Amino acid sequence: MIKVSVIIISYNNLHCLKKNLDSLTNQTYDHNDIKVESMIVDSGSKTDSLRALQKYKDRIKIILKPQFLSRLSPAEARNMGVRNSTGDILIFSDADCILPPAWIQDIAECFKNPEIDCVMGSREPDKGQGLGTIIRRFSFILYSNKFSIQESTIINQKNLDKGEPLILLSGNNFAIKKKIWLKLGGMKTIFKNPAGEDVMLENDLIKNSYTILFNPFIKIIHFHPISLVNLFKKCIYGGEASYVISRYPDSLISYKYFIERGHLLSFGTFIFIILFIIFATSMIVLDKISFLFILFILFLLTSTVTFRLIKLKKKLSAILITKGKQYETKYSLSTFQLSYFGLIHFIAKTITLISFLRCYLFDGLSTLDLLLKNKSNDYTREARRFHKKTGLDLLRGHDKNVRITTSCSIIIPFCNNYFFLKKSLRALCNQIFPVNFKLSKIEIIIINDGSPICLEKLVTQAAKVYSTTYLKLKKNYGAATARNLGLLYAKNEVVFFLDEDMVVPNDFIVSHLLRHIFLKDCIIVGFRQNISLRNLNLRTNRLDKIIAVTPNYKNDFRYKRFVPQEWSGIYRNVPVDNFNKEYYPLINSRFFRDYGKGKLIGVWDLPSMFLSCNVSVRRRHITELGGFDMRFKNCGMEDVHLGAKLIAKGLYLIPNLHATAYHLVDVDSNSKQRTSIADYERKLDLYYNLRNEALIIFKRNQWLKQMRNYFANKFDVIYS
Q1: Which of 263, 265, 514, 581 has the fewest Cβ atoms nearer than 10 Å?
Q2: Cα distances (Å, whole numbers) of residue 325 to 136, 217, 321, 331, 419
Q3: What is the 3-state secondary structure (H, E, C) of 143-203?
Q4: Cβ contacts of 495 within 8 Å, gap of 6 or more
């Protein structure tokens, strides 16, 4: 039996939602041969669409977007649908499509051929009112080979090399094997608008030697009413998408498929005419051109356009004749209508070209991965500036008498270890500060991530020294969510992130703040030395005695670590030669100076050096980047992802060897370690997928407003 998951994505499709869901629930297929799971992913629709969805909740699984996101892109919505699916075959469509009765059966039949990895269908020309819909309708008839090709076609690298046509995949009518979808990492979420994500998936399929079957008889009706303004918006999205695809190495799809394909004039003629118009206009302004020359230019343009119109009308007639009488009568155009279509289509493709050039010139859509590969971490200039101002070494220097003017917020998420948190807070309360330093410049924010353990006594003791806030989430949301809640309440300039199991030396805070006084756009990362509970009696006096001795940064994995061969199953993107060796990331990278531009040392790149157990950075940098990504549940990789965003934004990651803290480790639970390894592998895959997203910069307080809405009714302020 074939297990099939049908995934429909919807965003304000009230005009066609009922027809779509009725056509889905009334499918005819062999129930003994095919098991169907149907779901619809809503990307953030208005209330009316959500109300309409509820009528089908008994027959279709309804998946809503996470509350912390304002809207899901089509790529994100389809990825979310796959994460909630159980089928071996994934079938995709949109909520503005009407599906034929045997749609599922026909697609499932195609996969009975084991060589087929992906199936794409066709569609009727766009239905609906609006000038934009009319232009799209005839653009599809005239220029899409989906309309003209009338036999099943195999698309793979071998056939393309022979000169077979490339048929572009559309996200509203295709199916793929789930194991292949997961292997490719799903759709690339850098595509935030409905354009390009499906074509990029096709590119990945072909480049990885998979086979796509185009079946023109699996045909949906696309009900897509749009205005002329919305058509032009889609052209902007197309230009952005073509730019993003062109940036990928060895991309099969070029900008031509979005710009040149379907143009009224050829791309070369288009450029020629634009340059000619600019030249003629400049000559007129300079009053150095005769009236006859202007007439000649107009005659040349008119002749070219007329010739193209004649050719276009012949092409339309030839296509409609091959499709049959019903298409001839339904889609024929007069010369005037064709001229109007040609003009609007020319304007639309011009907008696409301008959108592409804008991205090309200003590079506003680079993925996080591409930005990291082009970002250097050579902070030599910052080190010289720091030494010139303080006379200290940036990596190890410390001055306990320096005048501290910067304020800080220390954010500590709490999960379940009361004893560890007690020692951590005691170490923070025993900090040594310069004379005349005001303790009001420091605040501690403790976030209880749904634990039933009572912390009021610890919080009250900490509040005697610093301004302290205690927030309690109503359930466990994970470390990323807890830290974002802390960021929402943080008021000070610099933010420290510590874990509940970190015990810091008595000059820890000053050591971090000293660097932030003179370095504005830097991340200061400290180090850690693990302490086993078996080998240490954690009595207060004994612990205070240890804290007086600075922990050794050479016990941190970032100084020295052996990479075993077994890790190759987890780090699948790392070269095989990097395993079964010992590495010194800190030394081999000249203290992270040579660690930029995507360099790997062992299995670690530069963002892997960013750990939220001991790090400080200016608060505005984090809020501009949207804080921690709350798609990471529990603890792990959410800090590395934030580090990647900060580095891509242009911040230098600088090690502070003086700010090394003790990390309290419980090694008694081997089962927890095994569970964490399996969980880490999933989070690592998510991290690599998120590196394909664009780097989004939020406007001032924009992200904080979103977080206020998200956290409404999710937590209690216990102490403030």
Answers
A1: 581
A2: 21, 18, 7, 10, 81
A3: HCHHHHCCCCEEECHHHHHCCCCCCCCCCCEEEEEHHHHHHHCCCCCCCCCCCCHHHHHHH
A4: 408, 409, 411, 487, 616, 617, 618, 619, 622
Q: Convert the pLDDT of each residue in 231-289 to its tens digit.
A: 888 888 888 888 777 776 566 666 555 544 444 444 455 555 556 666 666 655 555 55
Q: What is the pTM of this model?
A: 0.67
For domain 2-130+138-223, give the CATH superfamily: Spore Coat Polysaccharide Biosynthesis Protein SpsA; Chain A (3.90.550.10)
8-state DSSP, 65 = P
From 614, 695, 686, 687, select the one nearest 648 (Cα to Cα): 695
Residue 282 neighbours by CB distance under 10 Å: 11
Res. 672 pLDDT band, cuts 50 70 90? very low
Nearest-angstrom CA–CA distance, 603 and 434: 41
Fold of the CATH domain 370-719: Spore Coat Polysaccharide Biosynthesis Protein SpsA; Chain A (3.90.550)
Tell me the two tokens of residue 648: 């891509």
- List phi, psi (to 5°) of 58: -80, -20
688-699 residue pLDDT tens:
888 877 788 888
Tally Cβ neighbours within 10 Å of residue 101.
Answer: 12
Q: Position 376: which residue type?
A: S
